[in-house]
Amino acid sequence: MSPCDPGIPSQPQAQALPPTSSAQAPPSTSSAQALRPLQREGAIILLSNHEQELHDAMMRSSPPPELSILGKRPRQEGDLPDTGDTDVEDDGPSPMQSQAFTPTFSNVAAACLRYASKKKLRADQCNDLEVFLVDSPLGRQAKMFTCLISLENQINAFQSAAAPFQVSDELKTNITNYALAVLLSVKISAYKGNIPRNHILDIIRKFRFDLPVGIEHDYASWEKIKREVSYALTQLRAKVKKIIDKSIASNQNIFGLSQQIVQAQSS
Fold it and tell me: Based on the number of CB atoms within 10 Å of its own CB, is 233 exposed (0-12), middle (13-18) or buried (19 or more)?
C-alpha cells in the first residue's frame, strides 16, 4: 500500500534522540558537597534546590527545642502540670527556701532573748530589749546615743568619787630597787639632783606598774611620785655613805665594799 491510500492512517515517524553520555549527567549531591570549597567565618552559604528542600524537611520533622538561660526547656502553654517525681521548674524560690534565708522577726527576737538570758540580764532589761527591737531605725540610734551619754556620766561620777591617789607599797618597792640600780650605774653623771630622779621617773613611765592611766597629767598625784623617788634616793645615799665610813675604819678591801653596797637595799 502506498502512503497516499486514504483508508489506512499514516504512522508518525519517530524522532531520533541524540546519544547521551555520562559526562553530561548532572553531579550528585554528595559530589557537590565534597567539592564545595571552604567558607570563611561569617560568609553566607548558598544551598542548592535539593539541599534546601532537605533542610526544610528536617526542620519540619524535628524542630530544635527552645533553650532558656539555664539550658532547660521553658514550660509551654499546652504542657500538663507534672505530678510525678520529676523536677518542676519554678520561676522563683519556694516558700520554704524564702523562710530559710529570710529570718522572721519572731526568730530574731527569740534569739536575742536567749542571748540576754545567757548574759544574765534582768527582767526589766529584757523588756527594754524587746521594745528596742520593735522600734524604728531612727529610734534605735537615738536610744543608743542616749545610753552612751548616760554611761559617760556614770564614769565621770565614779572617777570623781574615787579616793585621792596614794603611792602603794608595791610601787615603793619598785622605786627603791630601780633607785639602787641607777646609783650604781657606771653611766650616771651625778648622784644628786634631778639627773638620777629623772632616770627613775622615765622607768616608771615606761613600765607603769600599778599606776592609773594618765597619772602624769595629774600634777598633784605625779608630785607624790616625785617625792617618793627623791626620798628613796636620799635613803640609799645615806646607807652607802655609812657603809663607806665603816669600810675605811675597818680597812675593808674594795671587793668587799662593793658587795656590801649592793646588799645595802636588804639591810
Answer: buried
Specify the pTM: 0.45
Q: What is the SS3 assignment for 213? A: coil
Which cell numbers hold the place of 36?
A: 564545595
- DSSP string for residues in 4-68: T-TTSPPPPPPPPPPPP-GGGSPPPHHHHHHHPPP--TTPPPPPPHHHHHHHHHHHHHSPPPP--
Nine-digit cell string for 139: 529610734
Q: Report yes or no: 217 and 189 within 8 Å, Cβ to Cβ.
A: no
Closest CA to 224 of 201, 194, 247, 249: 201
CB 48 within 8 Å of CB 26? no
SS3 label, residue 219: helix
Quote the CA–CA distance of 33 and 95 in Å, as a whole number: 56
Amino acid at 32: A
User: By the 8 A CB rule, do 144 and 120 touch?
Assistant: no
Q: For 58-112, what is each residue's pLDDT tens digit? A: 777 655 555 555 555 555 555 555 555 555 455 555 555 544 555 677 888 889 9
Q: What angle do CA 16, 20, 22 make, to 5 degrees?
A: 170
* Cell reading at 209: 606598774
Task: Return the CA Rg of the chain.
Answer: 55
Amino acid at 98: S
